[in-house]
Design brief:
Elements: H1 2-8, H2 11-15, H3 22-39, H4 47-58, H5 62-69, H6 73-81, H7 88-98, H8 102-106
Helix pairs in contact: 1-3, 5-6
């Protein structure tokens, strides 16, 4: 990491493929990325957490979300607590209404 930091101080190394250190920087960066992916994988977020974040960002509450989705507030509560999974039809509405990637809504 220290060597990468040193190499990153020179913008020419980053942009110029002929610059001394360009290949070294790319190889070291790939090694670090592979190490982190193997030892510290990023897990997919839980749907409930993503919905809560989007609700906060949009400034809406459960009642407003239930109206937008066309489901009861108790059903929204079940989604937010993880007690229930949305049907495919509702998952599509969640994705479109809250602008959440379909893969996250479907848990892929």
């Amino acid at each position: 990491m220290e060597r990468i930091e040193v190499l990153l101080q020179n913008p020419d190394i980053i942009e110029n493929q002929q610059a001394k250190g360009h290949i070294e920087l790319n190889v070291l960066s790939d090694l670090v990325a592979d190490y982190e992916e193997q030892n510290f994988p990023v897990k997919n977020p839980l749907l409930a957490d993503v919905i809560k974040l989007r609700m906060a960002a949009l400034g809406i509450n459960q009642k407003e979300l239930s109206a937008l989705l066309g489901v009861s507030t108790s059903r929204v509560s079940e989604y937010l607590t993880g007690k229930s999974e949305p049907t495919l039809k509702i998952a599509r509405r969640i994705s479109q209404t809250l602008q959440i990637e379909p893969a996250i809504v479907l848990g892929v």
